[in-house]
Amino acid sequence: MVLHKNIKLLTWFNFFTDFRLYAPIAIIYFARVSGSYALGMSIFSITMISSALFEIPTGIFSDKIGRKKTVILGALLAVLYSLFYALGQSFFMLSIGALFEGLSRSFYSGNNDALLHDTLSESGNENQYDEFLGKISAMFQIALAISGLLGSFLANWSFSLIMWLSVIPQVICLYLSFQLKELKTHSSESGNIYIHLKAAFKNFTQNKKLRLLSLTSIFGYAFGEASYQFQSAFYNTLWPVWAVGIAKTISNIGAALSFHFSGRILRRFKGLKIIKILIIDNIYNRIVNIISTAFPTILSPLIMSTTSVFYGVTSVTKNTLMQKEFSNEQRATMGSLNSFAGSIVFGVLAFILGFVADKVTPSKALLTLQFFQIINLWFYWKLFNRKD
Q1: 253-288 tens-digit pLDDT
Q2: Contacts of 127 (CB under 8 A, 6+ apart)
Q3: What is the largest CA-CA distance in the chain?
């Protein structure tokens, strides 16, 4: 049965995709190799900007050629980026790895969610998308929790070891990608990619609700991801390297639970009530992070890790709301357009965050970032006050 096979494979694919032993100390490793926080964060910038540049072509590729082929290409590139990170020890080698990682992400972005949506739609279970998305996405966090805890301890012996061990899960992902069952693609329109792209972009310009949802997703991702990736540098000013993974693991466990129960939680919220979850999340995050970075103590990493309890629910909420607004013909392309903008904003923001940290301190850099994240409250309020 396609539904069972694809969902089972996607579940394990998500797990091994994020089973990266270096994840909790990535910025520490990148900064050590490159010599500064700005250059260290620029590795993340290169990843996201390269991802952005290929977002739209790969999204169209998915809609035109097929979801399975797109996943296979993404997995192959994941093996390559992990190899270059393992071969690292120079900024140049890390940059090549970041370039391949960005390209890999672009093949996954939009496509994998579309694959899940199409799998459920084909079997008549489209209305369960939020529940399945939450449970499958929880595997990302479970993988990060387990690998992060192991990686932070192994980092005491060798950064090189954890980078090489991180290649193995990506090889497993490549194997799993070949086991997926291809589904019928929805696109039957002109083969001209410009017409296809124009149709997708038109949906954004004509749908105000979709525009607001996209803006919350773009800024939420860019600011949130930059903050998350840089947190380890801040934690390392308070805790030793081996302990940084503990805070990250607690955060990942909270996010995994949030993803797992997101479908059940969202069923209790209908219409505008769903937006309340996003508002509560933003307010709680800002209060916790501002206090923790303005007055840093040994407890700050633990306190900040509690914000993850909303992460899964809010991610699934945004994704589900946008999938309802996307058209079937350009579902992956529209998802890629959204990810394109988020990646560009992140790419610029990550370097700026690292630059500010070099000039002041990691805690002050993170503190400054919190105030800019309040902008999403305005977007949520606009959504909450819509009548449709």
Answers
A1: 988 888 888 777 777 766 556 777 888 888 999 999
A2: none
A3: 59
- 134, two tokens: 């939450």
User: Hey, where are the domains in the chain?
Assistant: 2-179+192-384
Q: 0.70 exceeded by the pTM?
A: yes
- Contact by Cβ (8 Å): 356, 368: yes
Q: Look at residues 235, 241, 242, 367 and name the one whose alpha carbon lies nearest to residue 301.
A: 235
Contact residues for 380 (Cβ-Cβ < 8 A; gap 6+): 216, 275, 278, 279, 282
Residue-wise over 243-260: b if at least 16 C-beta within 10 A, else e?
A: ebbbbbbbbbbbbbbbbb
- CATH architecture for residues 2-179+192-384: Up-down Bundle (1.20)
Give CA–CA dist 41/101, Å, rounded. 14
Q: Which residue has the tokens 């923001």?
A: 349
What are the helix (H) ranges across the chain? 2-17, 26-34, 37-65, 67-86, 91-108, 111-122, 129-154, 159-165, 167-177, 193-206, 208-235, 241-260, 262-266, 273-294, 300-305, 311-325, 331-359, 362-372, 375-384
What tokens were used for 356?
Answer: 């500010």
